[in-house]
Specification:
192 residues, alpha+beta, Protein Transport Mog1p, Chain A, 7-stranded antiparallel β-sheet, 3 helices, 10 strands, globular, disordered N terminus
Amino acid sequence: MSKKWLLIITAVLLMLSCLIALTACEGTAAGYNKYTQRKGIAHFSFECPESYEKSSYYLDSDHTSILHARHHNDGYLDSWFRVFEAGWGDYSDATDLLEKNNQRLGDSHEDYQILDRSSVSIDGVNGKKLISSYTPDTYESDLKESTLLINRKVYFDHNGLIWEIMMISIEEVAEADEPGWEHLLETFRILD
């Protein structure tokens, strides 16, 4: 075989290996981990900041709940998010769940405030977004007392299920958490 052919074959192999390497890394942004749920009644995936760890997982025939949390340097929780969907409960649809949760928080926290209420699209499905703030009850021992929480929630209906995606941050880190929240919503995929 001539040197020319060896160079051509080497160049083609090098290009193929580069193409394979680039394709294998596609999909997860730097600083984020991808999570895929393929068990239970709903299948989905999303990317979340690397600083979050899965801290609880609940799966049964009626619903799935995945909680990821991040702890502050002093050991207290400073932010967490949950993906939850259910095919049960006293809720007729996602809007009903939003309204009842909103009412419950308003009734139980005198400093409860709605900061934003708008429409949103999650993987092509229309939903509602509600951002609020309140000071939690003292029984929430993983939080410092008198910590104002910023509560971000998205609700939508899909395939007969009510979906809720939420992220709660203490006030001190809420602004810094916003890009991670937006990235989670942008990368959330329903896997039917």
